[in-house]
Amino acid sequence: MELLIVIVVLALIFDYINGFHDAANSIATIVSTKVLTPFVAVLWAAFFNFVAFFIAKFVIGEFGIANTVSKTVLEEFITLPVILSGLLAAIGWNLFTWWKGIPSSSSHTLIGGFAGAAIAYGGFSAVHLGVVLKIAAFILLAPFIGMVIAAVITIAIMHICKRAKPHRAECWFRRLQLLSSGLFSIGHGLNDSQKVMGIIAAALFVSGGREESITDIPTWVPLACFTMIALGTMSGGWRIVKTMGTKITKVTPLEGFAAETAGALTLYLTEYLRVPVSTTHTITGAIIGVGAVKRISAVRWGITVNLLWAWIITIPVSGLFAAAIYWLIGMWL
How far apart are CA 299 and CA 251, in angstroms? Predict the structure, then answer.
């Protein structure tokens, strides 16, 4: 029982870290275009992170992504030490990448840690290969989808507004960025909170709870997860804001609106498909898309390639870290 409590607390701590680590995803463009001040922007994003709970609970009516995450590891290989090791590895990698200002994926960190610890316990047969491959495929698919949608939206807006007065158009898109940022923050809450829900659900199941599926978990679990990610977002993520908002490409209010809208639509699509994706990858792809519409050279491809390498190594590094922690824990438990 004590270990279960520790795991739940650590899972919620990870959720909080996820919030301030990924706050940049929701607010980078809206801050870089000076539509909102950083302080107001994080409050705005945190509010919509929490609104996502009510949308998932009463509009969508299910937590499909949480169910996918909980099935990353086969049931017979899920133990409390495995979950604990995965969480510790995920927290460690998240804090390291936040400190270095690297917009890595909190989602893939958590999934990599969970899978890595399970492999250390039961070998490669411990993971559900189909689920892991689907999640891994979206490391590239999510930013690509975001990039394409963002490019299409940007081109469409430029065509529709080609006769508009520049000053008036900018004023409109500054207002519309409030809407697009809110929509993206809802997608962030829907996607990232459910990953922690899946981990807690797995812990409750193996500790002898009656939960047979994600729909059976008590209401306090999703409520706590959505609350913690909102609180984390309120804490900000300023080291990563600079990378996301200015280093990839400079954005205008029009482009910020297009990128956030494209990112939100991508997240809603993956919610429908029940695939846990990285909000970091999604918004990065969208920002690249709006930058490439101006001209290919507008995107700083050197920065983009470095980000891609960070994305690719996240799952294996987190997995190795979790495996090492599991072996260390095994000496004590």
Answer: 11
Q: What span, in angstroms and rounded, lies between the C-alpha atoms of 298 and 160?
A: 22
Beta-bridge partners for 73: 127
pTM: 0.86
Q: pLDDT tens across 60-102, in order?
A: 878 888 888 888 899 889 999 999 999 999 999 888 887 876 7
Sorting pLDDT into bands at 50, 70 and 90, what band is 52? very high
Read off φ and ψ for residue 250, nearest 5 degrees: -80, 135
State whether the Cα torsion 308-310-312-315 is positive or negative.
Answer: negative
Kindly indicate the confidence band of residue 262, based on its pLDDT and cuts at 50, 70 and 90.
very high
Distance, in Å, from the CA atom of 314 to the CA atom of 111, rounded to the nearest integer, reads 10
Write out pLDDT tens, residues 263-282: 999 999 999 998 988 887 88
Q: What is the predicted pLDDT for the residue at 235?
A: 76
3-state secondary structure the chain: CHHHHHHHHHHHHHHHHHHHHHHHHHHHHHHHCCCCCHHHHHHHHHHHHHHHHHHHHHHHCCCHHHHHHHCCECHHHCCHHHHHHHHHHHHHHHHHHHHHCCCCCHHHHHHHHHHHHHHHHHCHHHECHHHHHHHHHHHHHHHHHHHHHHHHHHHHHHHHCCCCCHHHHHHHHHHHHHHHHHHHHHHHHHHHHHHHHHHHHHHHHHCCCCCCCHHHCCCHHHHHHHHHHHHHHHCCCHHHHHHHHHHCCCCCHHHHHHHHHHHHHHHHHHHHHCCCCCHHHHHHHHHHHHHHHHCHHHCCHHHHHHHHHHHHHHHHHHHHHHHHHHHHHHCCC
